[in-house]
Batch of 2 targets.
Target 1
Amino acid sequence: MIKAIMARMPAILAVLVLFAFAAPELSAQQINPTASAVQEEQLMRALQSGEAVSGRVTIVDPRAADLIKPGNKNWAADHGGMVKTINIVAILGILAVLVAFYLIRGKIRIEGGFSGRTIQRFNAIERFGHWLLAATFIVLALTGLNLLFGRALILPLVGEGAFGTISAWGKIAHNYLAWPFMLALVIVFVAWVIHNLPSRTDVEWIKQGGGLFKKGVHPPAKKFNAGQKAIFWSVIIGGVALSWTGVMLLFPEWAGSSSDWQFYQVIHAIVAGVLTAIIIAHIYIGSVGMEGAFDAMGTGQVDENWAREHHSLWVEEVKARENAAPGGAAQPAE
Ligand code: HEM
């Protein structure tokens, strides 16, 4: 019997050694039920430091691996806080200024009355560019504002079903109208940049407040006055910023990291709000705020008295060109 045990001793020892190593492993698992707590601690640390908690993915976009990204909270706060506040202050602020301006100054009339003679102010290409820009911008602004404020303002009015439909179509309109907007921006830039370079007459125009605040004051101006130049450059610079950030939002793979994408989103929404406020002022002065102004973009023809009161140097240029033309025939204004 002892002999038999001795003969099997190596095998018995081997089994005991195996148990000696295996047992602690087993008991560690048993007495360490906190393996998930360790992971949780890592998770809490990651949440505090703002880095992403990531898994592993086999698809091309590695950002899809981010399970939790505490940095997103900053973006969500900006989106809900700062961005909305800037939009509200800019838009309600300009509306308040315009109402006050209308109540104090009233509609800006042609002081000499309509002369009955007209001058061509904008040709068909200029008007096409302007109205393409205007139509696309207005839809982009409304559908963009719906993303920021629709849930608070429109949803309670129309209900969930209608709001869902409006927002879904709004998103499609926003994504697709961005392209004709960019085209219009190019047309308007090419057509008008030459008339919007700063000149010495701008200083005098600004000193006299553009004649906007006092009757009988008409500072000289060429085709565009300093106020219009400010609108033009706001539209061009703001429009390029909106286009650039908008394309990054449409194609996140070009934007870089997800926080870069969020940065573009914040810039996009802020520039949009400020430009919308500027354009509200422009629409007011180009329509109900100033007698005779709308015709410039409507028919392309403006009354001569309107032109003399608001763009006296431009009228002189047009008249000089007409007189220089063979037979003194009227030439379209540039
Ligand atoms: C219903 C909306 C709009 C109306 C009634 C309107 C009206 C006008 C008028 C009458 C002019 C010519 C002013 C002149 O003869 O000197 C003008 C020019 C211009 N418009 Fe508009 N516009 C509208 C919307 C827009 C929008 C949405 C944009 C851009 C996003 C825009 C950009 C411009 C620019 C850059 C000019 C040339 C600079 C200036 O006159 O201020 N417009 N607009």
Target 2
Amino acid sequence: MFSYRHAFHAGNHADVLKHTTLLAIAQYLVQKDTALSVIDTHAGAGLYRLDGDFANTSGEAQHGIVPIMAADPAKLAPALQSYVELVRSFNPGAQLRNYPGSPALLAGLLRPQDRLRLFELLPQDARSLQGNMAQLEVPCPVQVLMEDGFAGVKRFVPPPSRRGLLLCDPSYEMKSDYAKVAALMEDCLLRFATGCYAVWYPIIARQQAHDVPRRLKTLATKAGKGWLHATLTVKSSKLHTLPDGQVQRPGLPGSGMFIINPPFALRAALEPALPQMVQLLGQDKHAAFTLESAGG
Ligand SMILES: C[S@@+](CC[C@H](N)C(=O)[O-])C[C@H]1O[C@@H](n2cnc3c(N)ncnc32)[C@H](O)[C@@H]1O
């Protein structure tokens, strides 16, 4: 059915942007005692081996988490320091072997009163996710649901505590995912207007991808909600023609995170972190970041 496996991409530049942002949001939201309900609509396997066959095939972490971990932690922005500390907590030795996906990252922050719901449609990854979460001994109830995250979340929104964070991180392997993301956000805003919604999307040469932030801005603005949009580009998106005439794809050149109802401190957390991501992960002169936001 699907060929996308996040294990091939774990710890790449897109994960650095997504997970640094997610961590900054979650850290802020757990400062209040009231129970927080967290949903990951596309959870993946939860935890990845960077020295395993999947990760070695692509080596994407070499241009993502590896240079971040190699940087002088004292010089990193606080949001990146927290991210590095969290990744380090999954790597007891000196070597970087394990990379926490969004479920493991969230599990490390949640408290007994919170709740974590993880959707993963691919049976192999759902089974790995179940096993990985069981090993982590998360302090709050965790539910792994092997079903369509786009459809399944609706019965959990709004959460009884009226405090919620939803990460929507599809693989966009199916072109229909682009429209589903916008439809889900529209529906969630109607059901639970004060929830915090974080959407990851790829920056690629495809109209539907360009449309994601534009559509989400329109939705948030119409609903009178604040938003934040951060992007990280690490290289040119141009195709390369090799001497033998073969055309080489550049791989993922960049990605974005769009947050509806962001915590007020998020912009200040990302402002110093994004230029450091560009400096550490940029692969050519096209490397850049953007950060824009609007109040609710
Ligand atoms: C980008 S990966 C998720 C990565 C994860 N959120 C992280 O940051 O560590 C997307 C995942 O969604 C799964 N998937 C694809 N379609 C889905 C659907 N409709 N519902 C739930 N999961 C889906 C894929 O199998 C894949 O594991």
